Amino acid sequence: MSFHLSRTDRIVIFGSTAVMMLAGVLYGFWPMIDAHREMRKFCASLAVGQPVAAAQARAEGLGYEVDRSVPGRVRLVDSRSVGTLACVLTLDSQQNIAAPTAVQD
Predict the structure, then answer these.
(1) What is the pTM for the complete model shown?
(2) Quick one: pLDDT at residue 34?
(3) Contacts by 7-13, CB closer than 8 A, 24 or more apart
């Protein structure tokens, strides 16, 4: 028994398979891609001079981890992204945000 596909049929079958595999990979990794974009957006929305307590409350509401282990800095971490994406807040003497910076470790 011989089974032979024309060139057009092979292109359609293998092309469809490749598109479906790509869609599956994107579907699987989309939460991490989106988390990366959302953290950068959140970090950019923090205003210089804003009280760190307000930023910390917003971050906790979004599910970000808050790390205050380094004096004068607050690190807001989103562990859903690939690697570790964080927003590092440098504080002034009144505990207000002096400089928000998004970093990837």
Answers:
(1) 0.70
(2) 82
(3) none
